[in-house]
């Protein structure tokens, strides 16, 4: 549409979000978080006395980390930003962690 | 307390010298493996990855945890346990190396030169605190896994001992260096790495996936640091969240001494730093062994900034 002033006004609706790609990206990030967290967060060493070490598991914390990363990644992608336009239809969607 | 050393020139003095040589080569192998990570990253993207020492520390922690898990699982056959721990440590530490590059450095690529350096220091502090919070601040002891050794020779009442662990460390380092050199020289990944090292933009124009090459460089460096972490766990038997700092700075010194950007230089520098440290500890003072290493860093930077095998930086027009 051209306004009377001669300036072009874009009235097209904003492109829709590609949810499958977005979810896949967030899941991938969460999976990496799990891999990172399992050895150092999920398995914790503690002193059992006599110079020996024991190990206790905290896989619930690993789960929290994964959920946090998943939600954070999703939120980051959904926030409006010029560089994240690629996640909207028609602007070269990608599946990589970018 | 004053320790009387065997007089130099005597047979006992020679034996003492040989013992320090063995100790220095063992230590140097560990520093060399860490130094390769510094030099590879510098060679390709021209930045010093100050978080690399922490990657090595994470490798040491993962190796201790892997040993504990295997112990709980009832795996007591040492060669099998070592192989499993080695592979597990390399795998998980590599993921850390990849993640550090992906989170802290890639978004800053193309930014001003200081930005990734500051990010690296921040990542280093973050990783230290991350391990401190989740694994605790106390020193983690590790019982000896490889025991025993043999006497190389005995002279003047002084026996030169080579432990099986020292032999394992030196042989593993040698095997890794051969494998690593083959990867760089003969594989498509190595060719892409050399292309990126020469001219990243041109490599990109010729179809090399530069991001992937850089990621793989971090992964390879982290894997070698993981092996160094495992070795230091076995050799010293203690690990804490702060070991990465000093070892990282010493390995950086080794990379500078060998000529930063040069892979054989990193290994040579590592071995020289290990020897300097061992001989200084053996003949002068254990308290000042770190000072001796950093004096070398200062001297190299002042008198031979390109290092022993480094090439002078040519400003491209």
Would you write up a description of this structure?
The complex is a heterodimer of chains A (98) and B (317). By secondary structure, chain A is of the alpha+beta class. Chain A has a domain at 19-80. Helix content of chain A is 45%, strand content 13%. Chain A has 2 helices and 2 strands, in the order αββα. Chain A has helices at residues 19-42, 59-78, and strands at 43-49, 52-57. Chain A has a two-stranded antiparallel sheet with strand order 1-2. In chain A, helix 1 (19-42) packs antiparallel against helix 2 (59-78). The longest helix of chain A has 24 residues, at 19-42. The radius of gyration of chain A is 22 Å and the shape is rod-shaped. By secondary structure, chain B is mainly alpha-helical. Chain B has a single domain, classed as ABC transporter involved in vitamin B12 uptake, BtuC, CATH 1.10.3470. In chain B, 71% of the residues lie in helices and 5% in strands. Chain B contains 11 helices and 4 strands; from the N terminus they run ααααβββααααβααα. The longest helix of chain B has 35 residues, at 11-45. Classes of the chains: A alpha+beta (98), B mainly alpha (317).
